Amino acid sequence: MPALKGKFEFRKSQRTTRRSLLFALGYCLMLSTALSSCSEAKNNTQQPETLPKSVASSSTTEKQVVRIVRSKQLTALAILEKQGSLEKRLEPLGFKVQWAEFAAGPQQLEALNANGLDIASTAESPPVFSQAAGAPLVYLATTRPSGKAISLLVPVNSPIKSVSDLKGKKVAFQKASIGHYLLVKALEDAGLKLSDVQSIFLPPPDANVAFSQNKVDAWYIWEPFATRNVQNKVARVLADGGKLRDTGNFYSTSRQFYQAHPDVIKVFLEELEKAEIWTKDHPKEVAQLLAPVTQLDPPTLEIMHDKYDYGLLPITEKTITKQQQVADKWYSLGLIPKKVNVRNGFLTPEEYAKITPSEVLANK
Fold first, then answer.
1. Domain ranges across the chain
2. Could you write out the DSSP letters of every residue in 99-130?
């Protein structure tokens, strides 16, 4: 028994010694690493020039993001996202593109003002409401009207036959949108006022549900909502904006983003104009590309293509004057709290010349 005990104690001693050695070795390694790190930190502090500047900057530099609204309509902006040319052009500038989806123009400009979006695409009215709220936006470019792409819908079996029949009826639309603006113009054309109908403010997805459930009597909405509802035999078109619309859409940004990145905006407008021209000249290819986006079949999209007039237009004095008339209209209706000077959102001709594609400037 004493022999066994001695043998056991010897093995125990061996294990203890091995653990001690391993611990000591680990401690030495840890100490060595710590000392080495301190030495490197000290050397780096004293002599930062020993690291090549290109290596130091590349390890910390990340690409900046430009956030652009996503279009789910039959537009050149939707084609621009699909083609990917903008991403390639912006990569050398250190930017990558993030496409952000919004229900409508007013939501875009709220995000623009809250630094949640960099480039918006809206009709004429959302910028006016945004300026009335004090947002420092900048108008970048405008488009042709494409009024036929916005429709006043009524249920397929509705007894309403004309705009005059809307008196006292519930009409849905996105507040401060092109639907809102065209409803005002359509009612005035019929000898009515906006107060003669019951305005139901709903963003497009919610209005779509309300309309399909016959909770509203009419709905002023843009494509592809209009064609989808007509195709599904839920709606018929009472009127479109073809004769009523006298303004185009606007691309806009925040004053801060414009001042910081005019080079990015210039590239965006150049690639967008290329996409506008391609979209105009390739209706079949456009229909194939955007069928998943719009949830409509290619043959229908080919027909819809004729509702749009493609190509950017430069900002001119005429553009500013017309936009001021839109702002004055909203003020006269009491729908914005103060008179807006839209010129505060426009650049000088010299500033526009630096960011606007030359072929667009030639359209003046």
1. 62-145+248-361, 148-240
2. EE--SSHHHHHHHHHTTS-SEEEE-SHHHHHH
The residue type of 152 is L
Total-model pTM: 0.82
Q: What is the mean pLDDT of each run of 10 residues along the chain (364 residues)?
A: 41 43 39 38 37 36 92 97 98 97 97 98 98 97 96 98 98 97 97 98 98 98 97 97 95 98 98 98 98 96 96 97 98 96 98 97 88
Report the distance separating Cα 135 and Cα 110, nearest Å: 9
Tokens of 275: 């996409």
Domain covering 62-145+248-361: architecture? 3-Layer(aba) Sandwich (3.40)
- Stated as kind and residue range, the H or E segment containing 17 is helix 2-46
Task: Give the H/E segment covering residue 251.
Answer: strand 250-254
Quickly count: other Cβ atoms within 10 Å of residue 341's Cβ.
Answer: 10
Q: Does domain 148-240 have CATH number 3.30.70.20?
A: no
- What is the rounded CA–CA span in Å between residue 130 and residue 80? 26
Amino acid at the residue 168: G
